[in-house]
Amino acid sequence: MIKYYTRACNFYYGKISKEKIKKKACLPLNGNKLISFDSIEILTRKSKKKINIKDIKKLPLKLKKKVLNDLNKITKVKKLSKIKSKNFPLLMGILNATPDSFSDGGKYLKSISAYKKIKKLSKDGADIIDIGGESTRPNSDTVDKLIEWKRIKSKLKYAKRNKTIISLDTRKSFILKKSLPFKINLLNDVSGLNHDNEMISVLKLSKIPFVLHHMQGTPKTMQKNPKYKNIILDIYDFFEKKLEYIRANQIHHNNIILDPGIGFGKNLKHNITILNQISIFHSLGFPVMLGLSKKRFIKELSGKNDSKDRIGGTASSCIYAILQGVQILRVHDVNEIQQSMKVFKKLIFKK
Fold first, then answer.
1. Do 16 and 115 share a domain, yes or no?
2. Alpha carbon distance 33, 40 (integer Å)
3. At the N or C end, where does the chain have fewer CB atoms within 10 A?
4. 171 noted as active-site residue
């Protein structure tokens, strides 16, 4: 049986987008009238075909039903539970309380420096702050759960005292359980719930929102010649199967965010393909998040113009993601990305 996938494409922005929606020439992406599309790409494992939304009615009945169902998910508003910000996209600031994270290892291990960073991230406009005590950079080892908890405990307490929306970056159910009294808002498990079999039980009992993240392998092995049959459709199928698993475990809320995992078991070609076709994941019906900040693909693309901070490459790839409706961006340099987004949105989303 042939499986079909639907990807929104051919986007319009700002005033033009609103006008086209009014004339019913376009459909809004994620309910946002400032971004719309007039075409879709229908994909299988062996083919792809681009058609205008006006021609959907000409499709065979079974395929038309599938496409219309996907379009309903693509066009609906995707709300993020307990996050009241109306910003688009939301910015998730990063606090790595680790000695060995790839870009800022050791900087925020001590509580005083971490508190200052949390304050700065909030002041700069972070809607969410992602706090983690275990590096998941390529070739990293698993950290003992007690060491991980010791690294983040005081930071979680400080962040919650300052009324911060907290994302907990961990693969371990022990850490999630210990963190629940701090009333964290979101779990960000980069293993896609694969590292710890107990995680799903804690999520069921706590009913906490979470990020469903894709990673091939483990941090120790993920960059050792990663391979896919079709990077986009393989990740899509992974999300579908995981969502079925989540529902089978009696988690019925929709407070789930999808992250295809740039750099987590992907080479340069894989990462670029994901960025180019990221809009396919809107048809799963959940908000999409991307972690692009300072990633290796920026170095590989920029060559001799690479820099330690990679702010330019981060900003440009974030803007590209905005153009395809990505709702959350996970970044280190919140102020600089906020600045680039404000200028960009004034230019392209002008009313």
1. no
2. 17
3. N
4. no
More confident residue, 156 or 105: 156
Tell me the one-letter amino acid at 37. F
* The domain boundary residue, chosen from 47, 75, 103: 75
How confident is the model over 176-224, as pLDDT tens digits? 999 999 999 999 999 999 999 999 999 999 999 999 999 998 888 888 8
Residue 131 to residue 153: CA distance in whole angstroms: 10
Could you tell me the residue range of the domain that residue 237 belongs to? 90-348
295 as an active site residue: the answer is yes
The owner of tokens 């996907």 is 70
Where residue 335 sits, what CATH number does that domain have? 3.20.20.20
Q: Which of 330, 342, 345, 351 is catalytic?
A: 330
Please tell me which residue in 266, 295, 296, 310 is annotated as part of the active site. Answer: 295
**Model pTM score:** 0.95
Does 85 map to a domain?
no
Whether the per-residue pLDDT at 117 is higher than 80: the answer is yes
